[in-house]
Structures are given as structure tokens and as C-alpha cells.
Amino acid sequence: MSNEYQFKPHEQPFMVGSPATPDHPTRRKVFYLLIGIFIGITASFQNGLLVANLTQIQGEMGLTPVEGGWISVAYNMTNACITVLLYKIRQQFGMALFSKITLFSLLAATSLQWLVSSHLLDTSAIIIEPYYLEIIARGLSGMVASAMTVLAIFYCLQGMPTAKRISGLILGFGLVQFGIPLSRIISPYLAVDGQLETLFLFELGLTLICFALINILELPPGNTEKVFEKLDFLSFAFFASGLAALAVFLVQGRIQWWTTPWLSYPLIIAVVTISIALWIETHRKNPMLQVRWMRSRNIIAFTITGAVMRILLSEQNVGAAGLLANLGYGNDQLITFYAVILAASVLALVISIFRTNAMDLRRLVIFAVALIAVGAWLDTDISLNSAPYMFYVSQFMIAFAAVYFMGPMVFEGMFRAIANGPAYIISFSVIFSISQTIGGLAGAAAIQAFTTIRTQIHYADMVSSLNLGDPALMAQVAGVRRMLSTQITDANQANVAAMGQVLQSIQRQATVAAYADLFFLMATIASITTLILLLNYLYHRYHKRNPLAKELAAIAKMREAK
């Protein structure tokens, strides 16, 4: 687009740090939309490929689960805290420089990840061990994923019809959900025999395509102004440190258990540093975060709803997927399972874009939570013989809900922020990002804790109820002993090994029982949440009130002023 082009009033950037929204020709709109979708999918792979292949990464690098956990921490800690800084960078330096920084960071992250996976850096000339380079690569990926999501949203906004332009937000955020199922589907084909080099070479190829596309069709320019203040860096340092410490606590707590003495320190650090950051922001003349607004009843309810939804959605990524992993199913046996999840996600995104009604957002959230409840109830009927196909219906429902709820949540958050002024949008972005990232980590941590404790309880109950004189048990032990007799000649050792295998079978039964308890708990929580949201919705309907009436009226006045 020519630099001499004079933007019409309605084409001007909505706020400092965002691009202008010209009336593009249809062909250019289509290109913007396609590029936005491609960028969004590329961004989703930053976390998706890590989640899908973390076990293989650990195995290939010879890492312990604890060391593998630090790789996950590196991604989540940077992804959760970078939102604040990215917003200010766009405001002060403009979209062009922001895009270049994002692209070069993406290239650096994916190149480093590929070099580590290809073992080209396993030489004495490199003073940093590959494991630490992997952590650096994942930390960069966390920052890049957040920045790429922003770029995807802006490109999608350019490509949407004027009447549906805000739906670009839904599309941009929704595309992030494709990362895990897509990664699970393609990983068995690209990472043959556990070789990850091809997988991350694929990611590098996507990066180079993004590099070309963004340079071929740049975003329209926007306005800039000097926004950075000295206190920004102090506040960000405390805020980022707190979120990083919280990520350490949630991720490593799952692996090492929360009673590990040193884990109390990151939790204390998180509480103290985040509190200091919020205190600084509360008492600043020009805060980055509108803390008083964030503490309002409506925003707290919004945050809790978003976090609870993310925790409930862990039923899929950690619950159902965890059960199938414990039953011995790997990525190559779950391709159809994740294809079902991907199909549900795509369908939900398309429907959400075209059907989300700003005047009736709560009903859609209720529907999404109800779907999770039904899906979780269906999953309670599990056994040792459960197979992936038995979860297709339930996981389709939950995957649909995972994307479908984002539309109304994004709309509500944006409306509440915009009604108060552009300065509040950064606060919404931070709230939404943290509720999703930390909510997801908290959900995974809670599920891990619950299933571990319930497995131990069920195992203890099953073992204590064993009757060594039970003919059925003795017959089972004898059958296993006969199978082992060709490998173990000593009778006593064969008896011990046979009993060990029987106890392993009991352990599997206890694990399945624990997951059944989990699905029951998730179904119960989702059902109660649905009821609470429904009662609140009916209350407002009875009194003919729209919870967003004030915000919608304020936005309408803004449009009239233009």
C-alpha cells in the first residue's frame, strides 16, 4: 500500500499500536485472511509440537522427567508474561518494526530448535549444552507464539468484511486451539522412529513461508507514540517474575509433587512479586494495567469463568488423552482420535464466527459448558478395555466447546475494555492470556494430583482386599508363572515375578478407576457451573437486562462520534 494514501476517518487505526483498516479490494481481503490463518496455525505449532513430542524430546536428549518439565516451564513462563510488553512495543515502535522483530524471533526460535534436534550442535565447539539450548529455544517460542497470535489477529481483521471485522478476534484466538490436535496428527508421519529432526525442519519451513508472506503483504501502518516509562520495566520485571515462578510451581509440582520443600519458594515468589507489580500499577499516574478495573466484580467473574473453562477443558488434553496413554496408546494409534478433535474445533470456529451475537453472549457460554458436562458424563463409563473410538463422541463435544466458548468470552472482554477506553485493552489481553495459560497449567496440575491420589487409594483398597487363598487369584498367579517359566528357572523368583505382574495389573485397574473418578468430578463441576450460569442468565432475562448494556451503549456513542 502506498505511503501517500490518505486514510478515511473510518479507516483510521482504532487505537495507537494497531494497524489502519482500509477498505481493501476483495482479492486483497482474501489474501490477508489466508495469511492470517497460516500465521495463526504456525503460532499454534509453537506449543503444539512441544506438547505432542515432549516425551520423545526427553528420550532423545536423555533427560529425566524433571529436566523435561523445565522445557515446558520455559515456554509457558514467557508465553504468559510477554503480552504486556508486546502491546507497548507496538504502540511505541509501530506494526512494521513489531512484525520484523516477531519474524526474526520466530526464525531464531525454530532454527535453534531444529539445530538442537538435528544434533548439529553436539560438538565440543559449542560451550552451551544442547539441553540448555533447548530451554532457550522453548523460551523464545513462548514469546513468539504470543506475538504471532497478535499478527494473526490483525491479518484476519484486515480480511474480514467490515460488519464482521471484530470476528477476526475469534478467528485469531481460535486458531491457537488447532496446535495440539494438528501436532498429534502429523507427528507420527514426520517423526518416524522418534526422529524429531524432520518434525522441526517442517516447523522451520513454515517459518520461512510466514517470513515471505508477511513481507509480500504487509499490514497497513498505524499510529505510534512514546509510551514507555521507567516504571514500566520495573513493574514488568516483578509481574513477569511472578508468572514465571507460578509456572515453575504448577509444572514441576506435577512432576516432583507439591510436598517437595523447595517448591514453596516459587509459590512465595509468585505471590510477593505479583502483589508488588499490582501495587505499583495501582499507584501509578499512567499504569500499564488498570488494576482497579481488573478488581471489579464483572471482570473478576469474567476471569474466573475463563479460568474454570480452561480447567474443565483439561478433561480432554490431560484427562482422556492421559487415560489412553496409560492404556498403552501412542500418537500413531490416536491419529483418528485427534482428527475428530480437530474437526470439532474447525466446526466450532466457523459457527462461532458467523453466529456469535453481541446481544446474547452468555447463552453461548452456557451451551459450551453444558457440552463439557455431557461429554464428561459419557466418559465416566470406562474400563481396561476402553479404546480411542469410544471417546469420539465425548471428545467431539468437548473440543467443540473449547473453541465455541472463546467467541463470547473474547467479545465480552473486548466490549468491557473498549467501553472504558483503549488503555483498558491491554488489561483485557493480560487477563485473558493469563486465565488461559495459567488456567490450563492449573487444570493439568489439579488433574495430575487428583488422579495420583485416587490411584493410590484405589490400589491400596484393591491390594488390602486380596485374599491369597482365593482360588481365582492363585489361578491367575499360576498362569503368569507358567508363562514366565521359560525365562526364569528358579521357582521362588518365578513366584515373585508372577505376583509382581498381577500387582501391575491391579495398578492399571486402580489407574482406570482414578480416571473414572476424575471424569465424574469434571462432569459434576461442569454441571454445577452450567446451572449457576443458567440461573444468572435467566435472572437477567427475567429482569430484561443485558449484562453488557452499559458497555454496548458506550461503544455505540463512540461510533456516532466518528
Fraction of helical residues = over 70%
How can the largest sheet be summarized? none
Give the name of the CATH architecture of the largest domain: Up-down Bundle
Mean pLDDT: 80
Distance between the termini: 24 Å
Brief summary:
The protein is mainly alpha-helical and 562 residues long. It has helices at 26-61, 65-81, 83-117, 130-159, 167-175, 179-190, 197-216, 230-256, 264-282, 291-294, 297-326, 335-355, 362-379, 392-404, 406-420, 425-464, 471-484, 491-542, 549-561.
Structure, explained:
The chain has helices at residues 26-61, 65-81, 83-117, 130-159, 167-175, 179-190, 197-216, 230-256, 264-282, 291-294, 297-326, 335-355, 362-379, 392-404, 406-420, 425-464, 471-484, 491-542, 549-561. The protein is mainly α. The longest helix is centred in the C-terminal third of the chain and has 52 residues, at 491-542. The mean pLDDT is 80.
